[in-house]
Amino acid sequence: MKLKAHWQILISLAVAVIVAFLLRGMGGEGGPFVDGVLSFCQLLGDLFLGALKMIIVPLVVSSVIAGITSLHGIDGFGRLLGKTAGFYALTSLLAICLGLALVNLIQPGLVDGEANVKLREVFESYEKEASDETREKVAGAQARGEEEGGFFAQISGFLLRMVPVNIVSAAANNGQMLGLIFFSVLFSLAMVKMKVDEVAPLRSFFVSLNEVMILLTKGIMVLAPIGVFGLIVPVVTKTGGELFGYLAKYFATVLLALSLHLFVVMPLVIRVLAGVNPWRHFGVMKEAMLTAFSTASSSATLPVTMRCIQENAGVSKSTSSFTLPLGATVNMDGTALYECVAVIFVAQVMGVSMDFGAQFLVVISALLTSVGVAGIPSASLVAIMIILTSSGIPGAEAAVVALMAVDRLLDMTRTAVNVFGDSCAALVVAKSEGENVLGMDD
């Protein structure tokens, strides 16, 4: 009897963690053998991740065009866009407010109501000892943050990324996925305006291409257990434990907030708005969420998310092919929540008191930056840099360097939250369109 895909991935995760701890016991990265094993695992992980990313562009283009051209006119598209955008705005705001409430309640950056001076010293010392690679990432994030500038500049940059000068270049650049989607939407709307018999061959081509890409996704996912193993072993092996001790309260706060959003807030949302049994939906999304957790990439998980939501949840291609690619690009519930908690935490450590007005600005900033910079590398780092700088909180660079050291597991977790949020949007929109999706069986 063949194990189901999600069980294969779970077993792979467990084996990867065991192997990583064995390698750490042998001296971490110190010996040639350990270095060789880590390099081989990294190669396996990169090949799997590369295979998933390889099919994103043709999958997004074919699914968006095939989906929108089946909506029977521009009115259908406008209705779909309004519902999708409204849902994403609502859930992102709920996530940020949840993060804000918990970080103020738990106060991970304070000790007996006062700023954690010891943690501030750890930030500064860790910055001095950081690797060149870490310094380059933070410097790059800082430069991009300065380039993004204030809120108007963020919005302007977001709009400019929607309209790529060169669509071929946009397709080759992961940071321009929003531009690729925008072009596909315009292309689809132009097709809808033409006579049916004139565009029938073109639409048939994109429908067939979409079917081929879904079949290719299934083939690549056969290799998921090997790819997940390769991705997880280096992460667990290289993660140091000392800084985790200092940041344990912060780490637990973020994980608690993400867990509450994933297991309480979103299930309530889909039960109320779509009449869907949340636990059935978790079952539908197991494979996609495990892939998201392993790869830490919403975009790379998109082919798996689309297959799960179409084949297992009964959402139509016309709905899922618009809501899911758009969500993988702009809907970042977990990321927005994380940004809010991280900024308030740093403010607490640095002894910066933030009243309601200042924290409200952090909420708005997290909402804007989670969308505005989501399509660029190190998006969370850039967003945190922007918010810390605009809020006048000192020590931004040192804090971000330290947070990076424990960020990988949080990144994996918030990616799973992001992907689940996208799938919930597809369910709610599909239900509102009268589609027969998962029922409310208890």
Description:
The protein is mainly α. The protein has one domain: Sodium:dicarboxylate symporter (Proton glutamate symport protein, Orthogonal Bundle), CATH 1.10.3860.10. The protein has 22 helices and 2 strands. Strands 1-2 form a two-stranded antiparallel ribbon. A hairpin with a 2-residue loop joins strand 1 and strand 2. The longest helix has 33 residues. The two termini are 29 Å apart. The mean pLDDT is 84.
Topology:
Elements: H1 5-25, H2 32-54, H3 56-68, H4 74-106, E1 110-111, E2 114-115, H5 117-129, H6 132-148, H7 151-162, H8 167-172, H9 177-193, H10 196-221, H11 224-238, H12 242-246, H13 248-274, H14 278-284, H15 286-295, H16 298-311, H17 317-330, H18 333-349, H19 356-372, H20 379-390, H21 396-404, H22 407-432
